[in-house]
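Reopening: TRAP transporter small permease protein still failing for me.
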Amino acid sequence: MKRIFHWIDRIMRLDEVLASAALFAIFLVAISNIFMRYLFNTPLAWTEEVLQLLMVWATFLGASALVRRNEHVLIGMLSENLPASLARWNDRLFNVGMVLIAAIVLGYWGLQLLPYSSFRSTPMLQIPYVWIHVAIPVSAVVMAYHCLVRLARDT
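Support: Ran it again with your exact input. Result attached.
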């Protein structure tokens, strides 16, 4: 059973690698469009759609990576002024709990968005918008997993 959780944890750590790869791809696509536009006066028409897809995935996968590393936005003023035992409970209740609730809400509304986006596609490349919007529930599931793992490890 421990091996299964080890492999699940390794798969869930792919969020950071994929977010970094998406950011690098954003850089390459944007630079290539700038190069084509200003040197050859022929901009690439498809870059905006690819950049949109990559930016959404980089944002949501990056958010889940930040939750895993506990580097997401949080309010630390209260935890810093509490005794250690209370600060630990504050971290569990507010920081992890609120991120878990946010992940559940994000996942719910992300799933509600998918049926509306399945009929639309991008004008140039015909990429279905569902491939862009599916980043929301995927990220929410990974964030919720990271929160539950942190809660289990802290107890």
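Residues 2-154 form one domain. If you still see a failure, please send the error message rather than a screenshot.
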